[in-house]
Amino acid sequence: MWRELRTLAAWGPRSLCTAPGATIFALSSGRGRCGVAVIRTSGPASRQALRSLTAPRALPLARRASLRLLCDPRSGAPLDRALVLWLPGPQSFTGEDCTEFHVHGGPAVVSGVLQALGGVPGLRPAEAGEFTRRAFAHGKLSLPEVEGLADLIHAETEAQRRQALRQLDGELGHLCRSWAETLTKALAYVEAYIDFSEDDSLEEGVLEQADREVRALEVALVSHLQDARRGQRLRSGAHVVVTGPPNAGKSSLVNLLSRKPVSIVSPEPGTTRDVLETPVDLAGFPALLSDTAGLREGVGPVEQEGVRRARERLEQADLVVAVLDASDLASPSSRDFLDTIVAPLAHPDPSGSSPRLLLVLNKSDLLPAEGPHPQPGPHPHLLLSCLTGAGLDGLLGVLKKELAVVCGDPSTGPPLLTRARHHHHLQRCLDSLGHYKGAADLALAAEALRTARRHLTQLTGGGGSKEILDVIFQDFCVGK
Amino acid sequence: MFSLRGRGLWVAASLSRQHLPSARLSGDCSAPGSPHFDVVVVGGGHAGTEAAAAAARCGSQTLLLTHRVDTIGQMSCNPSFGGIGKGHLMREIDALDGLCSRICDQSGVHYKVLNRRKGPAVWGLRAQIDRKLYKQNMQKEILNTPLLTVQEGAVEDLILTQPEPGHPGRCRVSGVVLDCWGLNQVLHAKHKFYPGRGFTSVVPPPASQAEGPEFDGRYQKKKKKFYLCAVLPNPMDGSAVHAESVILTTGTFLRGTVVIGLETHPAGRLGDQPSIGLAQTLEKLGFVVGRLKTGTPPRIAKESIDFSILNKQTPDDPSVPFSFVNETVWIKPEDQLPCHLTHTNSAVDAIILENLHLNSHVKETASGPRYCPSIESKVLRFPNRVHQVWLEPEGMDSDLIYPQGLSVTLPAELQQKMILCIRGLEKAKMVQPGYGVQYDYLDPRQIEPSLETHLVQRLFFAGQINGTTGYEEAAAQGVIAGVNASLRVSRKPPFIVSRTEGYIGVMIDDLTTQGTSEPYRMFTSRAEFRLSLRPDNADSRLTFRGYEEAGCVSQQRYNRAAWMKSSLEEGISVLKSIEFSSSKWKKLIPQVSISTSRSLPVRALDVLKYEEVDMELLAKAVPDPLKKYTECRELAERLKIEASYESVLLCQQQEIQEVQRDEALQLPEDLDYLSVRDVSLSHEVREKLHFSRPRTVGKPKTTKVKNSNTEEEEMAKQHYGLKKRMKSFD
C-alpha cells in the first residue's frame, strides 16, 4: 500500500509539542495603548522562552529586573528593549517557572513579542483564567483569595466567551467551523479505518478520501495564513501606498507625513520613478509609507517601469491613499485615475481582501476661497494642502481610523491576543497536517489529525471523541 | 418465596424512613450456619469470575454465587476474545493478573493480531476460542483459586443496614438473600487450609458419598483434580449470606427477555431463568433503570457448509499470546483452525425487509449496539449493500459454526431460509436459531469510578449491568470491582485507573461521567492518549499499581514486569547513547536510506524509528552493546515500538500530566450538591452533579470537553465553583 512506503523520517523531536500542559503566555497588563505592557509566561519552557528572546545574553538573575534587547528568535529582528524578570518556581505567582517581559506598550511591540513567544517550542497562548488555575493547582492561593476565585474566573470566562464570539463572528468563524468539520470527517474516516476496517466491510478508499480532505484543508489554511496578515502588519507596519496621477503631490504628502524629505519634489510630472519606502509612525500606528510613480501611459521606458512597480505595490497595499490635484479634477489623467483606480477600490469585493481607500484632494490652497468645491464623483474625500498644511489634522484623524481597522484597534478589544491565538492555532494545525502526511503509522497519522483538530476546536469550541464516533456511525455500516 | 420477596420489599420501602430499625435490617451476622464472607459476587459470567478471582487475590474471603456452576466461564455469544480496542483491555486485565487472558492462551483455536499494518498502538490481539476448553479452563481456575468459594444460588434480594458515616449512600449492603426454592441445590464448598496458599476450595473427595448430605457428581466426573462438596443448607437459615461487600454482575439476567420473531419469553440467556426479584429491588432502592438489547446469530452445522468456495483466513504464525506471562500459546499455528468469509446479498435483504412485521425485536425502543448491529439493522440503515459474514469455528471438536455478523431475530424458519441464500451456505443446516435479548441495565452514572454505587454503600456493579457489551469490557470491570470490593473491606483507598493510564480507565470514566444509551463497546478512538495506552506496555502501566496499591498481582508477575521495565529503560538509554554520523550509519545499515539532511550525529534510537529497522538489524550493525537486547523477543519488539513513538510520547506526557493534575484535586465524597451555597449553579446542574457525583475536579472538565456548548459553559462554571467549595470543606 502506498502508505506503507512512507517513512518515519519526517518525525523530528518534539514535532507534535502542542500539549495544553505546555507553557502558557499572555499579555497580563491592560490592553490598548499604554506606557508599559507586561507579558507573562508560566510553565517549564519559560526559561527557554526567556533565553531565546534575549539571546545571546545569559539568563538574568532570578527575581532581578534586567534590561534586555528582545529579538524574534526566528528572524533575529529586534523587537524592543525591555525589562525582563526571571521568576523560577516554586516561588512565583503560579508556582511554576515564570518570566515577565515589561515592554513598551505599543501594539506593534506587544504583538511582536507575543508572536515571538508563540514561535518558541512548547509555548502556547493562555486560556482565560489559566494563570489563576495554575496558581490554584500549585497551592499558591490561600483561602481568602480562593473565595474570590469563582467570581474572578467567571469574569474571565465571560471575557473569553466574548473574545471567542468576537473572533468567530462572521466570515472567519464560518471558515474555522467548516475547517473543523472537514477535519472531524477526515479524522472519523481514519478512525473508522483503524477501528473497523479489518472486521467489517468499510467502503474502499476511505483513507484516500481522508487524504483528499486533508490536502484541500492544507491548501486553504496556507492561503489563509498568507492572506490574513493582520498580525504581520502590526509588526512590520501597515502598507500605506500613496498613488495618483502625475504631479498630484504624492511625494509632498509622503514628505509631510514622514516629516522628512524622502522624495524629491518638483513641479515636473514624473519626478518619482521608483517606489520609495519609508517606515513612519502614522497616528500611533507603525506604517510603511510608499511613494510611487504617478500613473500615466506612454512616457519613456524608465517611467513605464516605475508605473508598473507602482501598480504592483498597489496590489500589496493595506491602505491606498489616492492623491488628486483638487484644482485639476477635470483633466483626463484625473478622470482616468478616478475611473480605473478609485472606483474599483471604493466598492471592494465582498471577500474583504482588497485594500482600504482614502481619497485626498491636494492643493486646496489653489482653490478659490469661496464657491462650491469640485467633487471627484461620489467618493468621500478630504481636502489638504501640502504646501500650507491645512487639512493635515483631519487627514491624520482619518488615517488613524483607517489604520485602526487595518491593524486592529487595541482599544476596542483584545485582538492582539486573539490574533496571536488565532495564528498560533492555525499554524500548529497546519504543522500537524504536515505530520499526518508524513506518518506511516496510522495511529500516529490519526494522532496528528487529532492534534490538528484540537487546535481548530480550541478556536471554535466543542468537539470530543463522541463526535467522531457519531460521524463514523452515520457514514459507515460497521460491525464486529 | 413470597416471604423472602416480602422481606425485600419491606427493606427497600423502609429506606425512606428517618431511623432505620437496624436490629431487623442488619440480620444476625453471628448466627450459626449463616455463612459470612468478605466479598460476595453475584453472577459467574466474565465480570463475575474476574471479580471473584480478583477479590480473592486481594486476600478477601470470597463467595461466587451463580445460577449454575456448569455455566461458569460460558461464552454466551461469539466464540472469540479480543479485537481492536478489546485486545487492549485483555492486556490490561492480564497486567492486573486477571484470568481471561491467560485462559485464552490455553483455549484458543485461531490467534490473529488485527491492524498489524496500522501501527503498534492500535494492534488488536484477537483469538477464536474453543468454548468448551475455555469453560473447562476457567472453571478449573476459579475452583482452584485460594480463598474463593463457589456456590450455586439465585440472589433474590439484598440485605441492607444503616449507612457507614463518612461515605455517601442511603444504606449499606451487608449480604444477599438467596432464592432457595428456585434452585435444586446450593453448593457449599468446605474450606481447607494449604500451607503457603491460604484457604482453598479444593477439597479431596469424601470417603464415601454418604458423608455429605448431597453430592454434586457433575464436577467429579468432568475433572479429576477438584471436587465440590454439595451441602443443602437449612432452607430458612441458609437463605442469607452475609458479606462486607457485594458485587452484582447480572449480565443480561435483570428482567431478561429472549426474543425470536414475535415470541418473547423471560430468560437471561436461552434456557436460563432471568432475575426479576433483584431487578425490582434495585428499582425500589431508587436506581435509575434503562433497557438495552443485544442479539446473537444462529449456529450452523459445520459439515453442511461448503468452505471450498469461500475465502479462508489463516491464523498468525507465530501466535501472539494475550498474557504477559506467556511466551507462546498452547497450540501451534499449523494446528489452528481457519476462519472463512462470506457475504450477504440482495436475497437476504429481501427476506428481512419482507418480514419486518414478524420481527418485534427490531421495532422495540430499547437501544441496541450501533457497532455490533443485527443484520436487520444493517439492512435497514444501509440498504443495497453487501455485508460481511465471518464463519468462525466454535471449537476444536465442535460441529458448530458461528456466523459473525448475522445476528438476527426473525422467526426460526425464516432464519433458515435466509441462511440458505448466502454463498457457501446453500445447503447449511441451522442448529440453533439466533435470538435477541432485552435486559435492564442501571445508569452507570450512579456508580463511582471504583464501581461502587452512590446509593448503596459497598454494593458494586460490573459488566452488562452497567450498560456495556462484550466479554472483555465485562471482565475488565470485574477486575476493578473485585479489587475495590476487597479494598473497601480492608478500608483502603479505592483502586482507580485513570483515563491516562488505561482503556479500563477510559471505559469506566466514560460510563460513570456520561452514562450510555446504547451498549458500550471499547474502541481505540475513545482513548485520547492512544499512543501511550498500547497493548505492549499495559504491564508497565498497571502491574506495579496493581501490586502495590491493590495487592491483586502475584509476586512472579510483578518481578517480570519490573525486569521488563528496567530492561526497557536501560535499552533506551543505551540506544540514545550510541551516536554516529549518518554516513557511518549508511555504511553500517546500507539497506536503509537514512536521511542525510542532518549534519548532527544520529542516535541509534532515531535509526530504530525507521520502518525497515528493527533491533535485530541494529544489533547486527552495532553488536557490542545491543546484542543482548535482542535475546528476549518481547524486549526487542517493545524497544522498537518505544522508539517509533518516542517523539510524540514526549508531548503526550505533558498533556497527561495536566489531566492528572486536575484529577488529583479531589471533591469531597459527601458534598451535598443540592444544598451547597455560595456557588452559582443552576438547579439542573446541581441535579446532574448530585446524580453523577464527580470524584475530582478533573471529572467535570473531561465532561466539559464532551458536552454541548451551553452545557460546557455550565460545567465550566460548576467546575470552578466546586473548587472553591472543595477548599472551604478542608
Helix-strand category of chain A:
alpha/beta
Strand content of chain A: 15-25%
Order of helices and strands of chain A: HEEHEEEHEHHHHHHEHEEHEHEEHHHH
CATH superfamily of the largest domain in chain A: P-loop containing nucleotide triphosphate hydrolases
How does this model look, in words?
- The complex is a heterodimer of chains A (480) and B (730).
- Chain A is α/β, with parallel strands linked by helices.
- Chain A is built from 16 helices and twelve strands.
- Chain A has helices at 2-5, 46-54, 107-118, 130-137, 143-147, 149-168, 170-196, 206-227, 230-236, 250-258, 301-316, 332-346, 392-407, 415-438, 442-460, 465-475, and strands at 23-27, 36-42, 66-71, 78-87, 98-104, 123-125, 238-243, 276-282, 285-291, 319-325, 356-362, 382-383.
- Chain A has a six-stranded mixed sheet with strand order 3-4-5-2-1-6. In chain A, strands 8-9-7-10-11-12 form a six-stranded mixed sheet, with helices on both faces.
- The two termini of chain B are 49 Å apart.
- In chain B, α4 (86-95) packs parallel to α13.
Attribute tags:
heterodimer; A: 480 residues; alpha/beta; Gyrase A, domain 2; six-stranded mixed β-sheet; disordered N terminus; B: alpha+beta; six-stranded antiparallel β-sheet; 24 helices; disordered C terminus; MnmG-rel_CS (chain B)
Strand and helix layout:
The complex is a heterodimer of chains A (480) and B (730).
Chain A: H1 2-5, E1 23-27, E2 36-42, H2 46-54, E3 66-71, E4 78-87, E5 98-104, H3 107-118, E6 123-125, H4 130-137, H5 143-147, H6 149-168, H7 170-196, H8 206-227, H9 230-236, E7 238-243, H10 250-258, E8 276-282, E9 285-291, H11 301-316, E10 319-325, H12 332-346, E11 356-362, E12 382-383, H13 392-407, H14 415-438, H15 442-460, H16 465-475
Parallel strand pairs in A: 1-6, 7-9, 7-10, 10-11, 11-12
Antiparallel strand pairs in A: 1-2, 2-5, 3-4, 4-5, 8-9
Helix pairs in contact in A: 3-9, 3-14, 7-8, 7-15, 7-16, 8-14, 14-15
Chain B: H1 2-14, H2 22-25, E1 36-42, H3 46-57, E2 62-66, E3 80-82, H4 86-95, H5 100-107, E4 108-114, E5 124-129, H6 131-143, E6 148-152, E7 155-161, E8 171-178, E9 192-194, E10 198-200, E11 214-215, H7 217-222, E12 229-230, E13 240-248, E14 257-260, E15 263-266, H8 277-284, E16 289-296, E17 299-301, E18 311-313, E19 339-343, H9 346-354, H10 360-363, H11 375-381, E20 388-393, E21 400-404, H12 412-420, E22 430-432, E23 435-442, E24 456-457, E25 459-461, H13 471-489, H14 503-514, H15 538-550, H16 555-577, E26 579-580, H17 582-588, E27 602-603, H18 604-608, H19 615-621, H20 623-626, H21 633-664, H22 683-692, H23 698-706, H24 709-729
Parallel strand pairs in B: 1-2, 1-13, 2-6, 8-24, 13-25
Antiparallel strand pairs in B: 3-5, 4-5, 7-8, 8-13, 9-10, 11-12, 14-15, 14-23, 16-23, 17-21, 17-22, 18-19, 19-20, 20-21, 26-27
